[in-house]
Amino acid sequence: MNTKYIFVTGGVTSSLGKGIISASLAKLLQDAGFSVTIQKLDPYINVDPGTLNPYEHGECYVTSDGAETDLDLGHYERFLGITTSQANNITTGKIYQTVINKERHGDYLGKTVQVIPHITDEIKRCIKLLGTKNKYDIVITEIGGTVGDIESLPYIESVRQLKWEMGPHNVLVVHLTLVPFLSATGELKTKPTQHSVKSLLETGVQPDILVLRTEKELPPEVRKKVALFCNVEPEAVIQSIDVPTIYDVPLKMQEEKFDLVVKRKLGLRDKKEPDMKEWRAFVNRLKNPKRTVKIALVGKYVELKDAYKSIIESLAHAGAVHECKVDLHCLHSEKINKDTVHNMLREMHGIIVAPGFGERGIEGKIIAVKYARENNIPFFGICLGMQCAVIEFARNVLGFKDAHSTEIDSNTKHPVIDLMESQKNITDKGGTMRLGSYTCLLKKNSKVYKAYGKTEISERHRHRFEFNNEYLDFFEKAGMIPTGINPDNKLVEIIEIPSHRWFVGVQFHPEYQSTALKPHPLFVDFVRAAIQYDVDNKK
Ligand code: GLN
User: Fold this and answer.
1) Residue 463: CB within 6 Å of ligand 1?
2) Which stretch of 91-100, 213-222, 420-429, 514-523 has the lowest confidence by average pLDDT?
3) DSSP class of 219
């Protein structure tokens, strides 16, 4: 079968959830037996989001092959249980970089290099590459931004060309818009949708399917009106109503027969009976918790929840395993100090210290670690969070009062966290951290070994600094043990305090590998420990 291409564009406003709609459609197609992948095209000029502050664009998601990508790739992996790669996230920066490199190389000798055809050809190459190289049945391509933006024009033009080249049975355009509800008049308004379809039409693209975000049920006459004015089949107007959890969206989309319309238009015959059984069971567990635990997520970007997207979702997956609602308290590390820490953390059943960079908020994180360690509250440190746990232990248990990471204090007498040897000559910031998947060996009899149930694991990384092995003896003697080691370079990947009920710090990012149907063992075990802590406290 030829690979089929589905494009998802957005209109009216940003943040309508194109990523979730794309992932939901992909899930339904996957459930019918098709191999599906999703790709995100981002219109910004950065080569990748790795150098962006999380306040700008949310979390930076890291793929197994070490690409720093848009957070939507996290949704794709969490919904589909697939691994994405470098090729699943294309930016304008990457496209131009390739074209300019080719121009310098002389590939276009004699020609004027232009947006059309050179930039659009490169965009089309990147889109088709996923289909041809990995032989997926279906490639869904989500186009970032909103139609009408100057930046997305070359992408929309590429979609127009591909549809013309491959024909309507091979290419579909899904357009996601908003139908706002005006409470003053009690009306649902379709005009913004009509305008955004018009601006898509101006670029020569007629959407095949419209997905309408709405907070109220759309009556049949509203759907009919949209269909008529936007020139789509009435069945191709799909309602996407607000739901309590993003994991409900695939089920809602199935009720709306979104997948059936797509399959009919592309001439696709199911390869297996779709049932969404496992997914439904997961959503049921998620939505009907039997208990609650309070977990603190200590970080410095907490104003923007998207900055910790994968951690938040991993906790939801783990909670569902235990039929437990994770009541998440995102706490600003800059607000935590010796005087506030008790009030901020005393009700928590588990404390996570988040990844991050730089000095801001670091002392608050270290104080939070101390509180968790001294009060025997389950603690999970991720990347910088693990490094904070090491610094805290060095300062307060080993007595190295000025211990620090050289990222923050390059003159510390006790650099317990130090720049990796391989990073010492690197000056460029983009894509130069230790990125992607590496193997780690676990010590038997450790908490992490019990959680994973095996000795060899592979986890994703994004860091420049590491545990300084010159201090290893001090730590081991005082009760902080390395329980996960990289077999090739001996880098400490995991630390634990065995005398504590659950104190685990990991240099890697387990949150990138947790999926709805395959929750990550460390998050599952951490939530279990938090539940146990609550039970023990009530005795
Ligand atoms: N800033 C730390 C480092 O570079 C931790 C990075 C992170 O938390 N992702 O090592």
Assistant:
1) yes
2) 420-429
3) P
